[in-house]
Every structure is written in C-alpha cells, then in structure tokens.
Amino acid sequence: MMIKTQAIASTLRDKRNRDFRDLIAWQKCRDLRNQIWGLCKSLPKHEDYRLSDQLIRASRSATACIAEGYGRFHYQDNIQFCRQARGSLYELIDHMDAALDCDYIDTSTADVTIHQIREAIKVLNGYIQYLGNCKNRKTGK
After folding, report:
1. Nearest residue to 32 via CA among 89, 91, 99, 86
2. Cβ distance 46 to 73 under 8 Å?
3. pLDDT in tens, 47-88
4. 36-74 in b/e burial notation, b at 16+ Cβ within 10 A?
C-alpha cells in the first residue's frame, strides 16, 4: 500500500494543483486506514457492526478530517480538523486494545499497528505545529 500512496503523491507533485493527498500526514493515515481495513477482515463476523465498524470509522475519520481541514480557508479551521483527526487516531489505539483484550489479535499485531498509529500522530502533530506557525506569521503573533 505504501508504494501506491507514494506513486499517487509523486504524480500529484508533477501537477500544478496540489491537494491534501500530498500531505505526509494524510498519506500515513491512508496507509493506516488500509491496514485497519485488512485487519477487520480477520475479526469475527459478530463484530462486523461493533468493533470492526468502529475501527473502520475511526480510520476513515482521520483521513477525512485532514482532507476537510485542508479545504478550509483559515488556518485555525484546518488546525481544528487536524485535531479531530488526531482524536480519531487515539480512538484507534483504544480499539486496538479492545481487539487485543478480546483475543481477536495477538500482541505483535497490536504493537505494530499501535506503533504505526503513533507515527501518524507524530507527523500530524508536526503538521498542526506548521499550520500554527503559518497562522501566527499571518497575524503577526
């Protein structure tokens, strides 16, 4: 999946009009979303409208909030949507713990996925900081 994301990003960079798909934070969340989707296929059928649904919704929320924030006119709006995306990423950690507690996944799978979530959070925090700096430069603060 990582190669597919990189190919999309490099294609977009060649064009004049960039969009949210160029953001490393969005790309990391997209890779995570795809990983979560695959993980959900292995969960028990009775979790389809419970844990699986929550995992999928939280992972989709992260990418969607970054995209929506990117489309906002003001830095503060973008920052707020990125904070919501970060909240969805933390929600994913809780859902991974639930999957582990129910013995749906092993410790190794949980650890790897949670590490990937934390990496996405770090990149997203950097993007939020960047947006804050841009906002402050614009307002002279």
Report:
1. 89
2. no
3. 999 999 999 999 999 999 999 999 998 999 999 999 999 999
4. beebbeebeeebeeebbebbbebbebbbbbbbbbbeeee
Average pLDDT over residues 99-120: 98
- Name the nearest CA neighbour of 113 among 42, 8, 11, 7: 42
Residue 138 binned pLDDT confidence (cut-offs 50, 70, 90)? confident
Task: With CA atoms as reference, report the closest residue to 31 among 107, 87, 115.
Answer: 115
Q: Which CATH code for domain 2-139?
A: 1.20.1440.60
Residue linked to tokens 């904070």: 83
pTM value?
A: 0.86
